[in-house]
Amino acid sequence: MSWLEVVVLGLVQGLTEFLPISSSGHLRIVSGLFFGHDPGAAFTAVTQIGTELAVLVYFAKDIGHLVATWFRGLRDPEVRASQDYRMAWMVIVGSIPIGVLGVLFKDQIETVARNLWLIATTLVVFGVLLGLAERYGRQERPLEQLTMRDGIVLGFAQAMALVPGVSRSGGTITVGLFLGLERAAAVRFSFLLAIPAVFASGLFTLPDVFAGDGPSPVQMTVAVLIAGVVGYAVIAWLLRFVEKNTVYVFVAYRIALGVALMAALAIGAVSAT
């Protein structure tokens, strides 16, 4: 893997991880179009560690409070009645589906799921679903009204992102809007929910990154750092954006990209595998 590819893919990961447009899909598309090969699911998983470090830094106070509340609640019955204690459990329980399904379908995720025809299709289909969620979701429930049932449902929504093109944030935001959550609440919970799953996935697949002709440890470190710095800026921008704007711009982008990719595949401009 060249240094140019490392830098470009680190930037792509940072720019797209938190937007509902699929970072894994973009990494696969950019690699196929400009570098002629697939960087692999393992590379994607490890670069996501950088963007999740950005989440830890940006939400350090909130995350620290949730973790402290969870530990206190284990021994204090009064704390267990708090929303923060329940929220911590929602993140834990909501992370289970993607962990279990990721292990069960690891081989398929790393092979057939990375076909560009599939990615093009999921970009369009889930773009339409995101648009429907924006249009018909009530968007009246704040984050404080999130229930354990919501956390489980959103956990399965996150698990759909095991297929590139779906988008981790896109899946959880879409389902969150359908559940009646405010747009900003759905976005914030999608950030928190991703932390355990992404770190576990990145650490689990780390040995696979350096197998064969993959990046060197130094290159991988640089890609992670680039993704983290850019991702931090994207978090700050997105949270402000969704407070006052709809997500239709992302819907239009997903559909346009999916259709363009289908056209490129149809004329043989890029290989599906």
From TrEMBL:
Keyword tRNA processing: no
Organism superkingdom: Bacteria
Catalytic activity field: di-trans,octa-cis-undecaprenyl diphosphate + H2O = di-trans,octa-cis-undecaprenyl phosphate + phosphate + H(+)
Pfam families tied to this protein: BacA
Subcellular location, principal: membrane
Localization, UniProt: Cell membrane
UniProt entry keywords in alphabetical sequence: Antibiotic resistance, Cell membrane, Cell shape, Cell wall biogenesis/degradation, Hydrolase, Membrane, Peptidoglycan synthesis, Transmembrane, Transmembrane helix
InterPro entries registered for this protein in UniProt: UppP (IPR003824)
Record EC number: 3.6.1.27
Transmembrane segments: 87-104, 116-133, 153-179, 186-206, 218-239, 251-272
Enzyme class: hydrolase
Membrane topology: Multi-pass membrane protein
Anything else known: Bacitracin is thought to be involved in the inhibition of peptidoglycan synthesis by sequestering undecaprenyl diphosphate, thereby reducing the pool of lipid carrier available.
Function noted in UniProt: Catalyzes the dephosphorylation of undecaprenyl diphosphate (UPP). Confers resistance to bacitracin.
Family: Belongs to the UppP family.
Name used for this protein in its record: Undecaprenyl-diphosphatase
Species assigned in the record: Pseudonocardia yuanmonensis
